[in-house]
Amino acid sequence: MADQSAYAASASIPLIKSPSLRVPQKVELPPDIHPLPDSVTPYFVYPFTLEPHVLTLESSRRSTIAAHAARREEYLRQRETEKERRRKEALRRIAPGFEPQGVLVPESRHAAHKPSNSLDGSMLRAESYSPPGHQRSRSVMDDLVESLAALDAAKSPPPPPQPLSPPAFPPPPPPVNQRLS
Q1: I need a labelling partner for 15 at 20 to 30 A (CA). Which of 1, 23, 106, 172 fits?
Q2: What is the chain's mean pLDDT, rounded?
Q3: Which segments carry the region annotation Disordered (predicted)?
Q4: How does pLDDT run across 113-137, given as a tens digit for each residue?
């Protein structure tokens, strides 16, 4: 059997070498080359002269980052409070005296309707609001008002009882007879 390989047909074709192709030259080692030792650990010597420099740069970088974070947090907090203030201001334009957490206390724009001093106004607001499920403690003023009301009720006689009578209804109107034409 003759050559039955896949490349049998190409065996008779002559090869032409490209002029752009060149074979590299053989590398010759210098005679004074120093071979690597069995262990390279003696070559790894760290001088520790860069440590203080790196540590000062790192500490200043961290303090700068912390200052930027604090400034950013303060800016975001101020922005949120400003948004909340604007929202409350817009609500107060619609309903003066509106507080989302408390009871609506109407504000008057006239000086005649305002309390005489700020203590009276704050007492009115404090007395009018009590959270659900919370029993307000009694103050000396509450006791005084109740005792004065009891004295006043004891001095004046009770009103005479009025007899109960059925309510008076007007008589029904007479029926109207109309013809539709």
Answers
A1: 1
A2: 77
A3: 76-181
A4: 444 454 455 555 555 555 555 566 6
Q: Is 5 helix (H, G, I), strand (E, B) or coil?
A: coil
| Phi–psi pair at 74, nearest 5 degrees | -65, -40
Rounded CA-CA distance 58/40 in Å is: 31
How many residues are given for the chain? 181
What burial class does residue 39 get, using C-beta atoms within 10 Å of its C-beta: 0-12 exposed, 13-18 middle, 19+ buried? exposed
Instruction: Assess whether pLDDT exceeds 70 at residue 3.
Output: no
Output the pTM of the full model: 0.32
CA-CA distance, 49 to 52, in Å (whole number)? Answer: 7
* CB of 127 closer than 8 Å to CB of 119: no
Which residues, other chains included, contact 104 with Cβ-Cβ below 8 Å and sequence gap of 6+? 95, 97, 98
Q: Tell me if 96 sits within 8 A of 106, measured CB to CB.
A: yes
